[in-house]
Predict the 3D structure of the following.
Amino acid sequence: MALNSYSTGTVTIAANGTSVTGAGTIWSGVNVRPGDILQVGDFQTVITDVTDTATLVIPPWGGGAQAGASYVVWQVSPQRFAGAQAMADVSTLVAGLNTDGFYVFVGPTLTVPDPSYGNDGQYAFQASTGKLWIKTGGAWSFIGVYKGFGIPAPYDNAHTYSINDVATSSGSSYVWINSTPGSGHAPPNATYWAVLASKGDAATVTVGTTTTGAGGSSASVANSGTSSAAVFDFTIPAGKTYGGTSTTSLAIGTGSKAFTTQAGLAYTNGARVRASSAANTSNWMEGLVTYSGTTLTMTVDKTNGSGTLADWNLNIVGQPSAGDLTSTNNLSDVSSAITAHDNLIKRGADIASAATLNLDTATGEIVNVTGTTNITAMTLTDGHRRLTRFLGILTITAGASIVLPYGLATYTTAVGDIIEWASYGSTATAIAFYPATQAAQRNAIGLNGTFVQVSGLGPTGTSSSAGAHMGVGAACQLVAPTTGRIEFEFYGQMTSTNIASGTVQMRYGAVPSVSPPSNGATTLVGTSVGSPAVGTVGGAGYNVPFKNGAIISGLTQGTTYWFDLVVSTGSGLVITLPNLQFKAKGF
């Protein structure tokens, strides 16, 4: 039977490091345990500790620095054998049983605990009666009954009751108090029962009168009926109100203004009040006030209109916010234009890539676009702008709702590319393009000298005699330059577990007209190019180097092309291509 293993996610390890950091891992006590073996490439080491679901501890790592590498955890820890775990569990259980004070349980038919059980200081408990004993000087000493009240139920003459059982009868509830369980003793027999709650006399409560009392007085209630037929009469004081008027003659202006007004208003010191003319409400002044008796004193800090008036209406108003903008000033009255701008231009939540990318749903003008779903259409309301940063590799195709930079028909993003979009009508136009690297920019506009190199490819091998794709086209891509020429090559080694012959043929295709094929696909797509590499592997441990290359011309500028290998074998054995390398350049 094959060894069990776990390999979800990737790992990062520093050279000579003692810590392994996982990405997308779940290193639980089931998946990974101390004593398991970690393998990255051809190097193995023992796992000494599992810190959490994404961190392992190992001896100093001798396999060189690893970043985002594939791995395997071989689940061979001694902790995985049933005998070791079972003994650990038994030791824990025995330790618990040896704890002093563990209860001795007394059967329901016994009146006292068995004197041969227990040690001094240990307790005995009888669940049926709630009785509790403690062993002292080698003998059991009765402490008392520790039993909660039973669930109330109507008295049953045939039922056997014991201490703290509860029964109801004729509207009252009773609790059994006799130390001897028994039946046939109906409450209220005081030898066996104590009253827990007596039945009350019936009564009625009605609402009588409700009277408004003087403002500022206390609320009160009085019973004008009897104890068994209560009639409650309520007196509720009148509440204070805002508002008020004043005939004090005052000129509109800032500073302290004292108004004579009504007493008993609801204003408190620090309230903000506006005094406006009854004849012309456009004439007003407002500010914070103090209020006592019939005098309301306002510190005016805001006014409108002019004149000396004596027909004031007083009303509570809200406190103006910092800045207190006026709409007709069109934001010219902000204290800091740059700060105001930065407050308006916010980064929103990430949005996922989709065939139709809806930028109207963005919660800010600046957003990250996650995922790798290719984009063929966009939604952006006329006049709106968005700044997008792409966190995945995907292809954007120009169309009725998308205009790409430099007149490109398609553009494949690099991680970190930034494109600014502005909508004209219903078309999202890329008005600014900020590639993550200079190479990405040259790739985008199709300049001569574009170049890409990919190493460390390790596709799954094949035993197909007709040929199967290695599926590296998603990683091996280049945008055609202005000349329409690309030179590319693959180089690596053919390996097998036995003597086997293999053929390696190159193929390419345009994105998105022909999607890059997957690893192992036997339906061949794209265009075959160049001469095949043919070799015979001498068996396990033998490698046959190969190198395949070609120059392609007549390609469409700005179009992304993928490059892949098709492997076939005439021996029926699996041919693999470990450590496959790829490079291409436009010229």
Notes: The longest strand covers residues 499-511.
